[in-house]
Amino acid sequence: VTLLYEGKAKQVFSVSGEPDLVRMEFKDSLTAFNAQKKGDFPAKGMINCQIATLIFQKLIRHGIESHFVRSEGDRAMIVKQLIMLPLEVVVRNRVAGSLAERLGIAEGKPVRAPIVEFYYKNDALADPLVTAEQVESLGLLPHLSISQTHEVLLSLQAFAKKLNQALIKIWQQVGLELVDFKFEVGTDKDGRLLLADEITPDSCRLWDLKTQEKFDKDRFRRDLGGVAEAYHEVLRRLKTDDGGRP
Ligand code: ADP
Ligand code: UDP
Fold it and tell me: What is the pTM of this model?
């Protein structure tokens, strides 16, 4: 077993005897603003791993497949090893975060229709926003022609909307509103595009449906306090949920 990659929130290991799989181990660290702000809390890795696992399992009932294969201990999951697209896809149901700041729109304003945005995954450049045209014309997806890139972006956009609808319902079921989220995808050995990485309070903005209270990484980004308590509460709600069935 070898460490293939160590990122800000997870370590990725090979799985002996299973070359198409990797083990993703969730760390207790928490970073924001392109890792300029660092923190951690005990059991954070375990909580996020369990949250991501429950979300991936619920998504199957909504017809959405992911890289998730099985759990391994309480802070790791075995997933299909994918060739990742160097993109972060963000979907927004209300204006918040970087969008609120960049356009000077009040945080919380609902959008007329969900917004799908692409960010080029590159730490040195702090993951810049890119247009579909830039991805296509600059050839930002390796090994794909311009027309293949165009097709992939179209299917990503459609997938983003379908995933958004499923996640809105799943979070609603536990009393949380999905304000926005980020996801990543990769292709498996048969060339299929699959949801990868994680869906957790690190990658979603989740507001309590009744109180508007934040249950996500903004508590850490904005020094609101109660970070660990919020993550614990998200997991507690998902565990006691009766299934999040569509
Ligand atoms: P970062 O790289 O942004 O610091 P993490 O610490 O979460 O983030 O590292 C996990 C890495 O594993 C990310 O680069 C992510 O793109 C990648 N990854 C997620 N799922 C898979 C998968 N199924 N196969 C291969 N790589 C994956
Ligand atoms: N997001 C993420 N990883 C990133 C950037 C954003 O998971 O590298 C998530 C973030 O948690 C939020 C959504 O994507 O749910 C939109 O983030 P935004 O562009 O508003 O940037 P932020 O304010 O988080 O820097």
Answer: 0.98
Dihedral angle, C-alpha 217, 113, 101, 177, nearest 10 °: -30
Angstrom distance (rounded) from CA 30 to CA 40: 5
**Among residues of the chain, what percentage have pLDDT more than 70?**
98
pLDDT tens track for 95-130: 999 999 999 999 999 999 999 999 999 999 999 999
Ligand 2, atom 11: closest residue by C-alpha: 203
State the distance from the centre of ligand 2 to the C-alpha of 89, rounded, in angstroms.
Answer: 10
- Pocket test residue of 98, 125, 217 for ligand 2, highest count of atoms within 8 A of CB: 98
Nearest to 221 by CA among 43, 97, 51, 129: 97
How far apart, in whole angstroms, are the C-alpha atoms of residue 224 and residue 218? 8
Q: Contact 91/68 with Cβ under 8 angstroms? A: no
Atom in ligand 2 nearest the alpha carbon of residue 182 = 14
